[in-house]
Specification:
- By secondary structure, the protein is an all-alpha fold.
- The protein is built from four helices and no strands.
- It is globular and about 60 Å long.
Length: 127
């Protein structure tokens, strides 16, 4: 296998994942803007806001898993699981950068990891 073939294989592996991650974060941004608009118009409790954020993660990861599953014809559930994990890792890195640590949020982050990975896998399975 020459250098050009290796580049093509790497590109065919990473590009669909990167494109899906961008799509997932665009969906996340749109849903968070809708949630913020609702928060401005309706007096929402902290619990309702938390539910909205969790729903945003689930919808975004499900969509990402669905998109990657449509692109990849085999082992779609694993591809969906993978983009859910990558989505979570970006969230985790952002959280670590902003908060300079987890600050006692280990259980919350573990729950988010499970939600992101499983909803991504479900999206891949449905595709």
């Amino acid at each position: 296998m020459d250098h050009t073939e290796k580049k093509e294989i790497e590109k065919s592996f990473t590009m669909p994942i990167l494109i899906d991650l961008v799509a997932m974060y665009v969906i996340t941004g749109i849903l968070l803007v809708v949630l913020a608009a609702l928060l401005g118009r309706v007096d929402m409790s902290d619990a309702a806001v938390s539910i909205g954020i969790i729903a945003t993660y689930i919808i975004s990861c499900f969509a990402g898993g669905f998109f990657i599953g449509k692109k990849k014809k085999r082992k779609k559930y694993l591809w969906g699981f993978g983009v859910g994990v990558f989505y979570f890792l970006v969230l985790l890195l952002g959280n670590l950068a902003v908060n300079r640590g987890l600050n006692g949020q280990v259980i919350h982050m573990a729950t988010t990891a499970v939600l992101c990975s499983l909803s991504g896998m479900a999206g891949g399975m449905i595709s």
